[in-house]
Design brief:
Layout: E1 3-5, H1 32-48, E2 60-64, H2 68-80, E3 84-88, H3 91-101, E4 105-108, H4 117-127, E5 132-136, H5 141-149, E6 154-157, H6 162-177, E7 189-191, E8 194-197, E9 202-205, E10 208-210, H7 214-225, E11 230-232, H8 233-241, H9 249-263, E12 273-276, E13 280-283
Parallel strand pairs: 2-3, 2-4, 4-5, 5-6
Antiparallel strand pairs: 1-3, 7-8, 8-9, 9-10, 11-13, 12-13
Length: 287
């Protein structure tokens, strides 16, 4: 069963030691007082950073993590950002939590006992456009590509830096939900049969709604707002994902392919999103 965690005096105690899984020892600072010191430093650093000040909206983050030590560390990061947090140790609990409480974002470990995390990612994506950040011990490129192909928005390998995870989490929450609050107005973008509505984060093709993940929408909007220009892969990684890393260009390729499959009449002969070999991509204003 999932548990609420809000820090302070009302914090729930971490699960007992005998539930610990074998991979917990791989995490940094996982020995006694060192672990406690590591977590305290992480929370202090997150709380004193002005740039990480939480919004007034009390978003809830769902942590899907079977290992007690890893779960505690993720809780500390989430609470340090000012969010509420709920936890689920397995796929069944996680799916029920998403359906019942509709969290703002999911942090997902792939190594679950009752279901492979990739299968859970696929299942969640079929039911919802909720942002998903994979936070896992699985570091292979195959797992990373599969996660993105199944709809994950970001992929973070353990051990992770708490501040970096916090930035990624807050950026994804901000881009996903900021316009829904009506803080600003952006006109719709119309390209032939394709319409993009930044305010509501909606996309239609020939009048039919197209369901995009948060990162897919951000990528499409970035391309559309720079139509008739060639934008580099590095620029897209920096402006959509917040980092420039040539190792992760495959991440961009996967998202481009998914976008084409959803908005192009023929994804094998794209009309909107064009590849510029050796440089990046361009978006055709008139198809």
């Amino acid at each position: 069963m999932s548990r609420d965690y809000a820090g302070g005096d009302g914090a729930t105690k971490p699960p007992r030691e005998h539930h610990r899984t074998e991979h917990a020892s791989l995490l940094p600072g996982h020995n006694g007082s060192d672990a406690a010191l590591h977590l305290r430093k992480s929370v202090i650093l997150l709380q004193v950073s002005p740039a990480l000040e939480a919004k007034s909206v009390p978003y809830t983050i769902l942590v899907v993590e079977p290992d007690p030590a890893s779960q505690l560390e993720l809780k500390q990061v989430v609470v340090g950002c000012g969010y509420h947090v709920r936890c689920a140790p397995g796929a069944d609990e996680a799916f029920a939590e998403v359906m019942q409480s509709n969290p703002a974002l999911v942090l997902l470990e792939l190594m679950l006992a009752d279901m492979d995390g990739l299968d859970l990612c696929r299942l969640l994506r079929r039911q919802s456009t909720i942002p998903i950040i994979v936070v896992t011990l699985r570091t292979s490129e195959v797992d990373r590509i599969c996660a993105f192909e199944l709809g994950a928005d970001d992929y973070v390998c353990k051990p992770f830096r708490p501040v970096e995870l916090a930035w990624r989490m807050k950026a994804l929450v901000r881009t996903t939900y900021s316009n829904s609050a009506g803080s600003r107005h952006s006109p719709s973008l119309q390209f032939d049969s394709l319409e993009i509505r930044p305010d509501t984060r909606e996309v239609t093709v020939a009048g039919q709604a197209v369901h995009l993940t948060p990162k897919e929408f951000d990528l499409l909007l970035a391309l559309a707002q720079n139509h008739e220009r060639v934008v580099s892969s590095e620029w897209l990684l920096l402006n959509v994902w917040g980092y420039d890393d040539s190792i992760r260009t495959r991440t961009l390729d996967v998202h481009i392919n998914r976008l084409r499959s959803k908005i192009e009449p023929d994804s094998s002969g794209p009309r909107f999103i064009q590849t510029v070999c050796g440089v990046g991509y361009s978006f055709n204003m008139v198809a």
